[in-house]
Amino acid sequence: MNTCDRFTDLKAGYERDIRFLRNHAARHAGSTASKSSTRHALTVKQNMAKALTRHYTRCPLCG
After folding, report:
1. What is residue 36's DSSP assignment?
2. CA-to-CA separations, 5 to 2, 19, 21, 27, 62, in angstroms, rounded
């Protein structure tokens, strides 16, 4: 799959946010903050999939 730099930047930004949320959940295991961070990480992952799909279909370089 051939993608542009914008696609790579979008993906890296989302992955950085997901990694931060998962690390926060691991540090505070068992607390409500951990559960909340885990839920937010799942939501961010879904948003990443939507954003990357939207980008891929609209970008003349990727699609």
Report:
1. H
2. 10, 21, 25, 33, 10
Residue 42 falls within a domain, yes or no?
Answer: yes
The amino acid at 19:
R
Residue 34, in any domain of the structure: yes
pLDDT digit string (tens) for 16-57? Answer: 999 999 999 999 999 999 999 999 999 999 999 999 999 999
Q: How far is CA 1 from CA 14, 16, 25, 35, in A?
A: 19, 22, 33, 35
**Do 41 and 22 touch, CB atoms closer than 8 A?**
yes
Give the pLDDT confidence of 2-13 residue by residue, as tens digits: 889 999 999 999
The boundaries of the domain holding residue 13 are 5-58
